[in-house]
Each structure stands twice: as C-alpha cells, then as structure tokens.
Amino acid sequence: MKQFVLALTASLFASVAYSGDMTNHQSESLEQATVVVYRNDSDIRSRRLTLEVLLGTEHVGRMRQDALVTQHPAGTYTLDTSLPGDEPIELQLQPGVTYYVQAGVSVHGGQVKLNLEEVGEQVARTEMGELPDSTI
Length: 136
Fold this sequence. Notes:
This protein has 136 residues and is an alpha+beta fold. The chain contains 2 helices and 8 strands. The strands form 2 sheets. The protein has a 4-stranded mixed β-sheet with strand order 4-1-7-8. A 4-stranded antiparallel β-sheet has the order 3-2-5-6, with no helix packed on it. It is globular. The N terminus is likely disordered.
C-alpha cells in the first residue's frame, strides 16, 4: 500500500510539472505572431521557381509550390524574397494574431514578377482550400 501511495504521489507531481510546462508553452505561443506565406501562381512556368523567404534578416524557408508557416515575436518586420526586383512588404506583427501573405508569381515575356500582398483569412482560405497549420 505504501508503494502505491508513493507511486500515485510521484505520478501527481509529474502531472503537475507537465501541466506547468504546457502552460508556459501556450503563453509563449500567445506572445508570438504567426505568418503564413502562400503561393498564388498565375502560370505554370512560374511554379518551377523556388522562393527563399526572409522575414526581417532571418531566412524563414523555401517555397516551391505550397505555403510556409512561421512564428515570430511581435514587432515590425519586412517580408522579402530572393527574387530580384520584388517589392518587399512591411508587416506589423501583434501577439497571437495570424497574418496571411499571398506571393503572386507570374512570368511575362521571360521576366518574372512577384507581388507580395497581405490578405485576410477568408481570401487565403478561398485560394488555398485548406490552411496549413504546421510550422516550418
């Protein structure tokens, strides 16, 4: 009986410690803003291009055809890509908010054009079908 009580006590302490870790993780994620960048290519030739995505000075990932999701602390950031001649956009990130950025890539006469545009969740949901939930 004594061993059972000790095992139950140890289990309860472990459960409380794990619960505290989860609370800390949840509060950290609430302090972060989520940025979803997705492709909206107008032509099949542009789908072959890979984009390097930068948020501020940090490289956040490569996009070939899909989307990428990243989390950052609140603040003002410049979102840019590796394509020459693109126009970066400025994002003012607030904690706990998700931002959607459409990367419209097109090819005209052999010249690649990229348009980065912040859009609402409904627009992103319509264009992407299913919103990504993973962090890259």
